[in-house]
Amino acid sequence: xxxxxxxxxxxxxxxxxxxxxxxxxxxxxxxxxxxxxxxxxxxxxxxxxxxxxxxxxxxxxxxxxxxxxxxxxxxxxxxxxxxxxxxxxxxxxxxxxxxxxxxxxxxxxxxxxxxxxxxxxxxxxxxxxxxxxxxxxxxxxxxxxxxxxxxxxxxxxxxxxxxxxxxxxxxxxxxxxxxxxxxxxxxxxxxxxxxxxxxxxxxxxxxxxxxxxxxxxxxxxxxxxxxxxxxxxxxxxxxxxxxxxxxxxxxxxxxxxxxxxxxxxxxxxxxxxxxxxxxxxxxxxxxxxxxxxxxxxxxxxxxxxxxxxxxxxxxxxxxxxxx
Amino acid sequence: xxxxxxxxxxxxxxxxxxxxxxxxxxxxxxxxxxxxxxxxxxxxxxxxxxxxxxxxxxxxxxxxxxxxxxxxxxxxxxxxxxxxxxxxxxxxxxxxxxxxxxxxxxxxxxxxxxxxxxxxxxxxxxxxxxxxxxxxxxxxxxxxxxxxxxxxxxxxxxxxxxxxxxxxxxxxxxxxxxxxxxxxxxxxxxxxxxxxxxxxxxxxxxxxxxxxxxxxxxxxxxxxxxxxxxxxxxxxxxxxxxxxxxxxxxxxxxxxxxxxxxxxxxxxxxxxxxxxxxxxxxxxxxxxxxxxxxxxxxxxxxxxxxxxxxxxxxxxxxxxxxxxxxxxxxxxxxxxxxxxxxxxxxxxxxxxxxxxxxxxxxxxxxxxxxxxxxxxxxxxxxxxxxxxxxxxxxxxxxxxxxxxxxxxxxxxxxxxxxxxxxxxxxxxxxxxxxxx
Amino acid sequence: xxxxxxxxxxxxxxxxxxxxxxxxxxxxxxxxxxxxxxxxxxxxxxxxxxxxxxxxxxxxxxxxxxxxxxxxxxxxxxxxxxxxxxxxxxxxxxxxxxxxxxxxxxxxxxxxxxxxxxxxxxxxxxxxxxxxxxxxxxxxxxxxxxxxxxxxxxxxxxxxxxxxxxxxxxxxxxxxxxxxxxxxxxxxxxxxxxxxxxxxxxxxxxxxxxxxxxxxxxxxxxxxxxxxxxxxxxxxxxxxxxxxxxxxxxxxxxxxxxxxxxxxxxxxxxxxxxxxxxxxxxxxxxxxxxxxxxxxxxxxxxxxxxxxxxxxxxxxxxxxxxxxxxxxxxxxxxx
Lengths: 323, 436, 335
Known about the structure:
The complex is a heterotrimer of chains A (323), B (436) and C (335). Chain A has 323 residues and is of the alpha/beta class.
């Protein structure tokens, strides 16, 4: 094990995969000369040259479209979206091109593209630079969506995403980049589509991911002091969804809470509680509960942003209502 | 305007029902709230009050005809008014739109709540898991205090309540809830059944209430089923038991060394087995208990009653037609012993094809036994006493007993029943005929 | 006002100097497209073909003239009106027709249909149901070719309607900045769906926009296969010599409606007929070939017969092929 930051973990993943496979290259805004706005690409151009670590024009549509085209021509592009929010300017390339090509062309060519999408609230970045939008992509067949919460998973999932033959959207919470964590030495892969049971418990299943896992952990700790045993699941993959792990846990605990930073309405939490209702209703011993952001854009001013944020206390209070 | 009477929905799960009995005839005046008809569903029968005041103008379904919930079954209106009850009620199997017939909510006579406890239990807020647990354990959610979120009954509440043993059948739970009874007062060693609650409701003082044992309940259920569903006919014959008793004494002398004691019953079993194969309708059973098809057995398993404190059991000796009297006696003795010691296996109490009930030891002259379903007939044997009888034109004293054969007329016609009984009488009186 | 990047090119090479195979490719390919499209139209109207069908009739010279400069290692991105590009790129007619029929034996296993036809085996990376959806994909394919050090190029076809999508700007800029081996082929067929191009387009010559990306551009008569070929040849040579992207505008005319069944209220029958009579690319080829005596009428007739047989075979194959089994619903959702 080594204790490195989330950002370093992703850098290791990039380096290892670019060394392993010459068809892997990365492009995006401000990644070569600047090393990425969160330092997540630092040193890569020196090692692999500016042909494989490409600074692009501010043309998100071209970045994703060209990634798809390059994949069709045999490359394995990693496209950096700068901010996840900007995927909005190129949704056609994401859901009509990238997600469809393999299926609608009868499997003639896979599309091994990774979209790296830094998301989440950090430093009052406000409405257009703070969003968590994983739910959009959970609704699109043909893409996979992963969302690590810690350095080890960041590395393992990024490596798996790069090796996956399918388009993978890799959400990395901006607040996670400086956070340190233990990462296994050597080759470390994390299977896409497999959730991780962070801690076992018997009274309540708490499903979370990304930055929210850290808040969920605090909430679970507080509940533990009251004798409430929480089974905490780090979802890690939004699509495909690890239904088995979730249902098995709910069968054990009888209670389900899903907590995410994204807006609650239409969020992935709805999909997960619907799963419990559809396939595990008789496991439930309490109403399901979703914890998510209020239905409004991320505000700028500090007190407003603080009020908007989902925290450990938000989760704790929600959980208390169903115990 | 006439009020259409429709098949009421009595509980959430009811889809169809039939009118078991109309309490009024067409033309009768009825008051609102007066008992009008009795509905039977697959689960229960319910007295239903008239939803309106007036004259019963029409009855559109036959008694016993199954119709969907909401289907018109009759009408009440002013004298002479034309009842418009639409089309004749369709058969229950053909789904009809309840919307096409306005359902006038009936009141169940004497009940303060129209929605049964089963329904209210479903409406009671309970977690799906608690509901599943309750269903599996026969717990009544409506009487369990909920401690979960929003007052839901949750799994732990059901488990907690379970410690106080409040397992009840849905009907019992409904009755208890309607009467405001606390089922916990009705502790039994098994589920609280309808009969338990009825006993409580019928004015029996709670202090003296003695719940029935499961065995008694089974007896009760089976006897009621038999008595209320089988068109039984009883045939009597006075039988001279002299020869049979001599034969018995002869066997017992021979078998003394083996420690086997042959009873009158053992011999009767053997005789009956022979004759039942000759008269197979008495050894038959109805397929599915309905008079649409029957099954003829090519074997004879003869049941006999063993009296126990607080009840009785009816084990049966298998394949009597293949066995000798000594073997029958041995097996019978073993079954009696097991019955008394509580060691009978379920299969030793099921599979009978005919039963002999012998109350001779008790000094009973004659009695009409109740058929043990699904069997077709039962033989009741009274006590053997010396009686003056006419033999060859002269009065003589003979050891006589009265046999009563009770048979299911759906399977056994009078002549057949009589033939069997007379053949049995002949064989008992002249056992030498047996090998013939 | 002429833009300095634009050259207007008309065919200069005498027909006699064209290799026989080149001429045969021109004629046979245009005929294949024409007869393929006529058959599709007929079968669509007969109710045999589901979905939407957009025909390439009248524009055959564009696909043919451009594709004559490409090999199977070169890539193309096509449009919703993509049968012609696919045929010209060399796709198997049987599997194409089966795809349009929604059959299991189609080149996309019946998952794509007319608007989403593709044949990667000949470098045809797909038609696109989204107008203007192909630019950036083509730029990416060109980027891959460049990174991989290949001498192959990519071409993206689009109409005057698609030239107004913002996507073209990002692709053109990126291709120019990175000197990607990418040929933009604008099929100026006068109608964006049902909208006459000048009512929706800021310039008469769309090629002028290439100036903004520092890209050489050529304008040709898109109905003259020789001009298209020669114009494209010049640009393809430029691209293959690693000088970056180029822009070809082909002035053509969409003889058929936007889709089969289009009531065409936006133009007159006379206008359409005039174009057919005076500018039909196949008729123009035949005239020139006969005049230059590179072909006899007998040669032309023989080609017609040959192509008829190919199309008949493709149709039979499509009609007789099975539909996909429902068990294939999830097949190829993920690789």
